[in-house]
Amino acid sequence: MALWNIWMESKLRQKWHDCAFYNDYFRLKKCFKSRGFVVGLGGLLPGHLWIDNVEIVVTTKCNLRCPACANLMQYYDNPYHLERDIVIASMHKLNECFDWCNEYKIIGGEPFLNPDLKYFLEEIPREKCDEATVFTNAMVIPDDIELLEVMRRKKIKIVISNYSCAYGMQQRLIDLLKKENISFYVIKSDTWTNRGPLEKHNASRADLRQQFIRCASPYKSVLNGVMYYCPRSAHGYDLGVIGRREREYVDLLKNTRAQNRRHIRRLMWRHEPVSACEYCLRGTDEAVAIPRGRIEL
User: Fold this and answer.
1) Which of 198, 204, 239, 238 has its CA nearest to residue 222?
2) pLDDT tens, residue by residue, 219-263
3) Percent of the chain scoring above 70 in pLDDT
4) Domain residue spans in the chain?
């Protein structure tokens, strides 16, 4: 029975990707699972916009340097904090578009390095998000009283990467979060999926399409006012390595609310590879598990 279910799911996923209408099987599955069939179906109607996962990049600075970082922080020679006004304006534009979101993530680099983090957390429309999270490597212990209060009041969950080099700091952070009654979760997995170096792997169009289907990247990434299909697309473009074609991104700050809703829906339910797929191994047989972090301090 288990093998039959695996085979059927594979066939269903392929069928969805062969369609031109709401073809992302995994997102449909997540939508109905999180909200139930009736409410989930309503969220897919033209008058509503459901987003499964979105991440807001607030900094490319990180106090670790992991060679296999999925978000390409290791390639930034001059990392930077994003401008507060641009991040907040981007969040305003995004927030007015969607009706609900499974996970609204704040990410870096290391988000706790950005002194403006508390202002960004204030902008999260918590009433429309099943989860609001901040991802951290636990190498920075927040001591801003206002930041701690915002995290507690907005019910922000702190997601802690499980790096062996950060064990002592991790325990300090956990103790603080418990004391402040702030929700947290420690990632249990000790592996990452190897996405490969930031270089073109010259796959055929057919192979790229199959890679895209198998990848099923869940996170849309917002960087400098633009929403990208995935983090690699966002940071690859920011680094000047990966290009971007029309319909592979949404310029949130330049569009009206109606335009953003239409373009985000189209981006989210896309069924063709993006430019970044040519620079990534996720979704291929080469995307093997590797030790989490492999950190260079």
Assistant:
1) 238
2) 999 999 999 999 999 999 999 999 999 999 999 999 999 999 999
3) 84
4) 50-291
pTM of the predicted structure, to 2 decimals: 0.89
Q: In the numeric block, which tokens belong to residue 65?
A: 């340097």
The predicted structure's pLDDT at residue 197: 93
Domain 50-291 in this protein, CATH class: alpha beta
As a whole number of angstroms, the distance between CA 137 and CA 148 comes to 17
User: What does the block give as tokens for 99?
Assistant: 């009706």
Residues 6-28 have a mean pLDDT of 58
Residue 26: pLDDT band with limits 50, 70, 90: low
Dist CA 276 CA 14 (whole Å): 21
* C-beta separation of 60 from 76 below 8 A: yes
